[in-house]
Specification:
Number of strands of chain A: 29
Number of helices of chain A: 6
Largest sheet of chain A: 6 strands, mixed
Strand order of the largest sheet of chain A: 8-5-7-6-10-9
CATH superfamily of the largest domain in chain A: MoaB/Mog-like domain
Oligomer: homodimer
Radius of gyration of chain A: 32 Å
Protein name (chains A, B): MoaB/Mog domain-containing protein
Structural class of chain A: alpha/beta
CATH topology of the largest domain in chain A: Molybdenum Cofactor Biosythetic Enzyme, Chain A
CATH architecture of the largest domain in chain A: 3-Layer(aba) Sandwich
Function (chains A, B): Catalyzes two steps in the biosynthesis of the molybdenum cofactor. In the first step, molybdopterin is adenylated. Subsequently, molybdate is inserted into adenylated molybdopterin and AMP is released.
Number of domains of chain A: 4
Largest interface: A-B, 142 and 144 residues
Keywords (chains A, B): Magnesium, Metal-binding, Molybdenum, Molybdenum cofactor biosynthesis, Transferase
Distance between the termini of chain A: 35 Å
CATH class of the largest domain in chain A: Alpha Beta
GO molecular function (chains A, B): ATP binding; metal ion binding; molybdopterin adenylyltransferase activity; molybdopterin molybdotransferase activity
Bound molecules: Moco-AMP
Cofactor (chains A, B): Mg(2+)
C-alpha cells in the first residue's frame, strides 16, 4: 500500500486509480492471451516426467512382451496333446534361457515354465501347476513325469509378442499428460522409450515487497512495526503442490519500498532464467503506485491490467516484459494481503503456468458445489474460501460436493484459508440477489484434495 | 512367478497354494491393523510441511496484526471529527515507524497512512485516499491540508491487534492436515510458529525381483529373455504424486531369483532407515513361493496374507518384520505384473502410508462414478481402470463423474493404466449379475486428478 517513493513529495498524488476495474474473466483471458507456451525440450523418462505434457507422439520401440511369455507357473504344452501323463522335457525360468536357448517342444512332451518365462517353440498353451499332478521324480528330486489334468485351448496362458504393445504402436498421443498415477511412465519405459519431447515446467521467482517484512522464520515475539513475510512460504507451498516440477528461485531478499530496491530486484529476476515473476505487495491505490510505475516506466513492461473487479485481489496487476534476449517474462504483481496473494496464485498464476507447460486447458478444475449454508454476497464478485466435502450417500445418483464457508473472508485473515480446498466463484450482489441460500449450486475451483 | 530356488529340486512342489484367498476388504483391514503410526517429530514450518498431520494443537504466539494496522491507503482520523479540511500532522508508512514512534493524533488533525501502516494512537478510523481532496501543499510538494469528504464509523478500515489471530488462540487443531493449498503454512508462519510436532512421512524402499529384469533406461532393441524393470519408475511416480514427502531409497540392485539374493537385499532393507519395503515379483503360485519363504523362514517375518481375492493382485502378500532394534517394518510384496504392482500400491500401500503419517482416515478418496458403458464382470472382484471425467452440465444439481474404461484389463497391459485416474471397485460376477450396465453407479478410488 505504499504510494510512491518514501522520499518523493506527494502533492501530485493521484486520488483515483488510473487503472480501470476489469472483470475477472476478462483479466484471466488477458493473462492467457499473453502467456507463451514454453518450447518443448528433451526429457528423460522417469518419475520426474509426471505431470508433463508430451510434445510428440510416442510409439513403442520394443514390443511388450518381447517374447512369447507364460502368464502362469505351470507346464507349456501342445494343446492338441490333451490331458495325460507326459515327460518333463525342459525347464524355462523367466530370464534363464539366455545361454540354454529353448529347444523346440516335441509332441508328447511338456516343459516346466514359470510366470514370465519364455514359452518354448512348438508349445502353444500353458497349464497352471494347480491343474497338474506329480507322477514320477528322479533320485535328485527333479520332476520326470507330470499328469496334465485339464484341457487347454490354443494360446491359453501365453502372451504373444507385442500383445500388450506392438512395435511402432502409438502408445501415447502428442498433447497427452504424463499422469502422476504412474501408468504412462511405466508404459514408456516398458517399450524402450527413454527420452521424449515434452513441455518444460516454468521457473518461478517469488519477490515479496514491503519495508515492514521480516523473514517468516523470525521467532516470537515480534515487535511492531514488523510483519513476517508469509507470502513466500504460502505461495511456495501452493506452487509445490500444484506444479511440483516448477523450479522456485527465491529472490535474494525482500524488496524495500523504494523504486531503486524494486527496480534492482525486478531487473535481476527478469534477466534470470525465471519465466514467471510473482511479486506481492505495493500495488494498492496511491499517487505513484510504485510497483506499477517501476514496471512500466523503469523496466518497460507492458501492464495488461492493474485492477480487477474481484474480492480479494482488487489491485492484482499483470504485466509482460522482455529480457535482454527478447524472451518474454510474465510478471504477476499480487496484492500483499496474504489471502489475496494466495487466491491470486490460484486464479491467475496457476492457469498461466499450466498454459506455459503445454496443458490443453489452462483452467484449474472446478466442480459444482452445493452450499451448506447461506452466504451474503459482497458488492464485488468474490472468491469465497470453503471446505468442500464429497458426500456420497446410499441411494444418491452421484457424489455431491457440499461447501462449508471458512468464516470471515477478510483478505488479511489467513484463517479463512485454513482447511479450505476450494474457492467458490460468487457473483457480486445485485439489487435482486443479495445472498445465496443453503442448497444453491455454485461453481467451485478446486485448490486442494478433499 | 518363480517357484523356489533355481537350484533346488522341485519334487516337493506344492500344487495348491497354502495361502487362503482373503477378500480385499479383509486384507486391507489387516494391513491397517498391523501398520503403526509413526512417532511425531519436530518439523520446521515451511512448504515442506504441506500434507503433514499435526501432532499438537497449534496456538498463535504473536497476534496478527501485531499493531493497529490500516486496511487502506488514506488518512487516519478521529471519526467524531467528521468531514472537513484538516492539517496533515504526521505520516505513517508500513514498517516506517521504528525510529519515529507515532505520536498521539490530536483532535482536529489527521495522519497520512498507507495500507499496513501503524495507525497512530488517538485515531480510530481511516478514510480512503479516494474519499479525500488535496487542499494545500508546501513548497516541497508535501501535503499540508487535506479535505475529508466522507464520514467514517469508529474502527472503519482498521485491523485491531489480534483481529485476524489473537495471542494464544488455537489456530490449528491437533490431527489436522497442513493443507497443500498453502493456507496453514502461511497461517502458522504469520503467528510466529516456526516449529511444530507432526507425523513424519515414511521412508520407502522399492525392491524389484526377477532374473529377467534390466534397468528401465536400457535402450531398444532389448533381446529376449530380458524385460525392463518398469515397476521401479511407475511405483516411484505414484509415491511422489500421492505422498511427495516420503523418501524413496532405491534398492542397490534388482534381486535375483535366488533365496540368497532375496535374503541379502531384504535384510539390508529391513536394517535400513526404511519404514516400508515394497517388493515386486516372485510371489505367484509355486512349490516354495520364494519371496514368502524367505520372508517367513529366513527373516522371521509374519505374513498376514499371501493371496487376495481380487484382480489384479491375487498373489499380493503383506508381512511385518522387526529390525535388530525391534522396530516394525512393513513389507508389501506385490505381484510382478506392472499393473498389479501399481494397483497394489494404491489399494494397499498408500492407505498404510497414510496411516503411518497420522491421517485420521487411511483410505484414499473415492467418489460414486456413473458407467459410460457396460462392463463384463470378472469372476474375481476387480479394480477396473477408468478415466473419470467430471461432467458439469447446465441444470444439473451437481457434478457427475462419468467413467470410461481403458480397454483390456490384463494385468501385464500397462496401456490399461494410460489416462486412468480412478479404479472402479467392481464386485465379482454372480449367477444373477454378470455385467454392469451403462448408467450404473459404482464406487471409484481416485488415483490422479481429472
Ligand atoms: N485507498 C485504497 N487503499 C487500498 C485499496 C484501495 O482500493 N484504495 N485496496 C486495498 C486492497 S483491496 Mo484486496 O485483495 O481485494 O482485499 S488487497 C488491497 C491492498 C493491497 O495492497 P498492496 O499494495 O498490494 O499491499 P501492501 O504492500 O500494502 O500490503 C497489504 C497488507 O499485506 C501485508 N503484507 C504485504 N506483504 C506481505 C507478506 N509478504 N507477508 C505478509 N503480509 C504481507 C502488509 O503488511 C499489509 O498489511 O490495498 C488496500 N488498500
Ligand atoms: N500357477 C499359477 N500361476 C500364476 C498365478 C496362479 O494363481 N497360479 N497367479 C498369476 C498372477 S494373478 Mo494377478 O495380479 O491377479 O494378474 S499377478 C500373477 C502373477 C504374479 O507373479 P509374481 O510371482 O508376482 O511375479 P513374477 O516375478 O512372476 O512376474 C510376473 C510378470 O511380471 C513381469 N515383471 C516382474 N517384475 C517386473 C518389473 N519390475 N517390471 C516389469 N515387469 C516385471 C515378469 O517378467 C512376469 O511377466 O503370477 C501369475 N501366475
Amino acid at each position: 500500500g505504499l504510494s510512491g517513493d518514501l522520499n518523493a513529495p506527494v502533492s501530485n498524488r493521484v486520488r483515483k486509480s488510473l487503472y480501470p476495474l476489469v472483470p475477472y474473466d476478462q483479466a484471466l483471458a488477458s493473462v492467457i492471451e499473453h502467456t507463451p507456451v514454453l518450447s518443448p525440450t528433451k526429457h528423460n523418462v522417469s518419475e520426474a516426467l509426471a505431470g508433463h505434457i508430451l510434445a510428440e507422439d510416442v510409439k513403442a520401440l520394443d514390443p511388450v512382451p518381447g517374447y512369447r511369455a507364460s502368464v502362469v507357473d505351470g507346464y507349456a504344452v501342445i494343446s492338441t496333446d490333451g490331458p495325460g501323463v507326459y515327460p518333463v522335457a525342459q525347464v524355462q525360468y523367466a530370464g534363464s534361457n539366455k545361454e540354454s536357448k529353448a529347444t523346440r517342444l516335441q509332441p508328447g512332451t511338456i516343459a516346466r515354465v514359470t510366470t514370465g518365462a519364455m514359452v518354448p517353440e512348438g508349445a502353444d498353451a500353458v497349464v497352471m501347476v494347480e491343474d497338474t499332478e506329480l507322477v514320477e521324480s528322479d533320485s535328485n528330486g527333479e520332476e520326470v513325469q507330470v499328469r496334465i489334468i485339464v484341457s487347454v485351448r490354443c494360446k491359453e496362458n501365453i502372451r504373444e509378442i507385442g500383445q500388450d504393445a506392438a512395435v511402432g504402436e502409438l502408445i501415447i498421443e502428442k498433447g497427452s499428460s504424463v499422469s502422476a498415477a504412474g501408468g504412462e511412465v511405466g508404459l514408456m519405459a516398458s517399450v524402450g522409450v527413454t527420452e521424449v519431447m515434452a513441455y518444460p515446467h516454468p521457473i518461478i521467482t517469488i519477490l515479496s515487497t514491503g519495508n515492514e517484512l521480516v523473514h517468516f522464520s523470525t521467532p516470537a515475539p515480534l515487535a511492531p512495526p514488523f510483519v513476517r513475510d508469509t507470502n513466500l512460504p504460502s505461495l511456495s507451498t501452493a506452487i509445490k503442490s500444484t506444479m511440483p516440477y516448477c523450479t522456485i528461485i527465491a529472490a535474494p531478499s525482500v524488496a524495500k519500498d523504494t523504486q531503486d530496491s524494486l527496480y534492482t530486484l525486478l531487473k535481476s529476476a527478469i534477466e534470470s532464467t525465471a519465466n514467471v515473476i510473482i511479486t506481492t505487495g505495493g500495488v494498492s491505490m496511491g499517487e505513484a503506485d510504485m510497483m506499477k510505475g517501476v514496471l512500466e516506466q523503469r523496466l518497460g513492461a507492458q501492464i495488461w491490467f492493474g485492477r480487477v473487479l474481484m474480492k480479494p485481489g482488487k489491485p492484482t496487476t499483470f504485466a509482460t516484459v522482455k529480457d535482454a534476449n527478447g524472451k518474454t517474462k510474465l510478471v504477476f504483481s499480487l496484492p500483499g494481503n496474504p489471502v489475496s496473494a494466495l487466491v491470486g496464485y490460484y486464479v491467475f498464476v496457476l492457469p498461466a503456468l499450466r498454459k506455459m507447460a503445454g496443458y490443453a486447458s489452462p483452467h484449474i478444475s472446478s466442480v459444482l458445489a452445493t452450499l451448506a449454508h447461506s452466504i451474503q454476497l459482497d458488492s464485488r464478485p468474490e472468491f469465497y474460501r470453503v471446505r468442500i466435502n464429497a458426500e456420497t450417500k446410499a441411494g444418491m445418483p452421484s457424489t455431491r460436493f457440499i461447501a462449508y464457508g471458512t468464516g470471515s473472508q477478510m483478505s488479511s485473515r489467513m484463517l479463512s484459508m485454513r482447511g479450505a480446498n476450494a474457492l467458490l466463484k460468487l457473483p457480486g450482489a445485485s439489487d435482486k440477489v443479495k445472498e445465496l441460500k443453503e442448497g444453491d449450486v455454485v461453481e467451485a475451483y478446486i485448490i486442494a484434495d478433499f
